[in-house]
Amino acid sequence: MLNQPQFVFSYTIPYYSSVDGESIELFVSEKTYEFYLFAQKHYPLTVIHGDLHPNGPSYGEATDVLFDREKAILIIGSKDIKEYSNEIIDISVAYHLQRILHFDKSTFVYYTYSEETPGNIQQFIDDIQQTVESIPLYKFLIKHGYRVAEREQHILQDGIKSKPLLAHWKSVHPLENEKTEFLFIKLVFTSYVCKEVFTSYKKELNSIYPRLFNEFDQFQKQIRKYNFSTKTGQQRALQRIFRYLKYDSYITPITIDDIPLWQLNYKQMQ
Question: Which residue has the higher pLDDT, 152 or 167?
Answer without folding.
Answer: 152
